[in-house]
Description:
- This protein has one domain.
- It has one helix at about 110-120; strands spanning about 5-10, 10-15, 20, 25-30, 35-40, 50, 75-80, 90-95.
- By secondary structure, the protein is mainly beta.
- The strands form 2 sheets. The protein has a 5-stranded antiparallel sheet with strand order 1-2-3-4-5, with no helix packed on it. Strands 6-7-8 form a 3-stranded antiparallel sheet, with no helix packed on it.
- Helix content is about 10%, strand content about 30%.
- Bound molecules: zinc ion.
Amino acid sequence: MDAPARLGNGRVAVTEYLEIDLGSETWHCRRCRHALGSARRSYKEGCLVHARDPRTLYPPEVEGERYSFAPDPTLCLLVEFYCPGCGTLVETEALPPGHPPSHDIELDLDSLRRRAASEAKP
Ligand SMILES: [Zn+2]
C-alpha cells in the first residue's frame, strides 16, 4: 500500500474511498465526506454491512447445474462494506460465517500529523 496522500485541510487520502481528518481523527468517505468513526478504530464500524452468499455472485456455469466457482457458503461469505451517506462500496472481504471483520488498516496517526506539519512549513 502506498503512503497516504495529503488532500489539504488536515485530510489524508488512505484508499480510493477513504480519507482521514487528522484534526478530528475520524474516517470519512471520499465521495460524500460522511464520517465513519474514529480513525483509531476500524472504519468498518461506521459502514453498512451486507454479508452475501457467494452463489449470488458466481452463478453455475451451466444453467441448472449445482456446481460453480462459488465458495461454499457454509465456509465463506462475501462481506461488503458500504458508506451510509452515499452507498459507495468501500471494501469487500471474504470471511467464514460469524467471523468478525478484519481490522485491515491501522495507521500511525501521530506520525501522519507530524509529517503533515513538517510539510506545511516553508
Ligand atoms: Zn459516502
